[in-house]
Input
Amino acid sequence: MSSLVYLVPLALLLGGAALGAFLWSLRSGQYEDMQGAAERILLDDD
Amino acid sequence: MSCCAPGVEAAAELGGAPSRDEILLASRDLKDGLRQTDLSVPGIHCGACIAAIEGAFRDVPAVEQARVNLSAKRLSVKWRGDTPPPIIETVSRAGYEAHLFDTEEDAADPELSRLVRATAVAGFASMNIMLLSVSVWSGAEPETRQAFHWISAALAFPALLYSGRVFFASAWSALRQGRTNMDVPISVGVILAFALSLYDTMAGGAYAYFDAAVSLLFFLLIGRTLDHIMREKARSAVRGLIKLTPRGATVEREDGSRDYLPANQIETGMLLAVAPGERLLVDGIVQWGRSDIDCALVSGESAAQSVEPGSAVRAGTLNLTGAMKVTATSDASNSSLADMVALMAVADGGRARYRRIADRAARLYSPLVHATAFLTFFGWMAATGDWHRAIGIAIAVLIITCPCALGLAVPIVQTVAARRLFEAGIMVKDGSALERLAEIDMVAFDKTGTLTTGRPRLANASEIDAGALALAGAIAAHSNHPVSRALAPFDDGSQPSPAIITEHPGLGVEARIDRLLYRLGRAEWAVPGGSAGTVLSRDGQRLASFVFEDSLRQDAASSVEALRRDGFPVAILSGDVEHAASRVAKQLGVGDVTARLLPEEKVARIAALAAGGRKVLMVGDGLNDAPALSAAHASMAPSTASDIGRNAADFVFLRPSLLSVPNAICVAREANRLVHQNFAIAIAYNAIAIPFAIAGYVTPLIAALAMSLSSIVVVANALRLHPVADRVPAADPRSRTLAPKQQALGQPLAGRA
Output
């Protein structure tokens, strides 16, 4: 029981961080060009 | 980069590239003098294309940044200054064709990002609550269970507020209008489940349905988001097509100065300069100049008309050969184009009256569910007198019957169907279009631009002397007239290339070779005393006469045949003259043909058919078809259709082949069958689960399992929809060969989907 006191909040925190990361990536437009992102790693930057 | 070399001819055929003025008008002001121009580049389809286009912009001055979006086949260029840099030229130098599209229509879709956020929040909450629930189900001690219930409640409450709003708002607006939709039972079930679970948690009860309530929201939001993405994808693909209505026109002032003004500033009486290759923005009267104009998109007439000072010209027609000046007799808001929009608003037929399958199901389903839950409650009250237990069981009934599978049953099938159609180059506007297309029992075609390509083709090539034909081709290569376009491919390089070429708008092309005067054009101009027709003459002597016909669209005959074999009566509603319409009808074996129809007469025909119980699919491309497209039960347009035609149609097909029409009907019918199967599965599941729920045997564990299982079955069933490529376009198995043929011949027109 005592381990749950910090394990459950920790789990929620991690989950919340993942949610936050997803919302941030959504807002910064990282899903706007999925195919392009896949191709761009093959391009030389000049 | 041969894989990515697209034909640039397509753009040239459909009128000139947008002028710098038009680019400036279509660009968006960012701030600090930075402007952004968005272009659609249908030829983009691999990483090398990104490198080629972005690389081409690296040394263009004034361009700050050029970024390609591969998924949307789009390019956005940020630049500084008052005049736009040579954007279109740079793209075409890299080997691609680019065209502008409306930036104002393209504002980021707030509804989609809201749905995705709501799904993410519901997903986060449901996963964490599930995690806690698993330990409760596996027999946690009472105080641990209690703590986990409280944490679940704390997670479920904000998720319900944030993600549930999508359903609550829609349910509330339906209820306020005295209707009910699928969202009503969802909202009632979710809210009641949450409220009872909260009450039980406070009272220290053993069961809580937080997991069921939130995962229900999560599943349904997935369906809702998919539905929205599908529509958004089609919308952006259609928006990416060449915009045929100009954004503005060049106005010539009294002092001779010229200004490019946006459409809403053009007024009656202004003198407009119209260059060859430009489309007219408003109705007008020619003041100066001679030219030929292409009315195919406006009235359905396939032959180009010659105009001279005094002729009236209509908005939307394309100026082909000569520069002219036109006095505007209307402004953009009351031109014949605007009349068409007004006619469309009145003509709104089948689609306005149509109620979607899901809503019709909900109308039957939600009273049934609510009645069952009520009866269960009263039954248990009467039997045991324990109101808490009675409410608990009634809510279990609500949750188990909550249309999780029903909410997914329709959108998932339609998303898969839209995906299949997208792969075949057919865009669907929304799910209701698929449902309506599955119901149609008759197909009406427009002629020019739909059954035919709208471009003339030389009919008597075999009768003409090869040398004269090659010479005609060499001369014709210098003209924009559609007839010249049809002759130009016959230039085999064997004839001397003409030295001096002059185009006489409305008459023909004149060329000098070795001091001989050649004329290609109208017979009465090329040969003194000649009769009608198109001829090639040398010093007034006739060398050859040419006969042209409007060529049929690719696979037109086999498509009409496939439709007829499937039992659909086929009709042709044409705005063109009788002999042109009946010739095409004869070629295709269609008996029901009407020519010289005005737009309102086309609508009247469709309305008359609808009154006779027919559900008509209208396939058309022109401005004059737009009202009929919106009046019909379902409608399709080719990607070369006028802007309003494309907007009015439920489906837009990008490939040149007309087989898109029977293929789309096939997919829609199969999707319809799968939707009904899914409904049957969902109802069968309810029939099994409800007795258990009424008897009080449903625990949160069973509810969660049953719900997930039924959703998975429904999704798996939807995935059975076949791709278009290996589909039989007609009931006859012999026609199986048609589909691969379409694959092979279906050249990418506006970007292969």
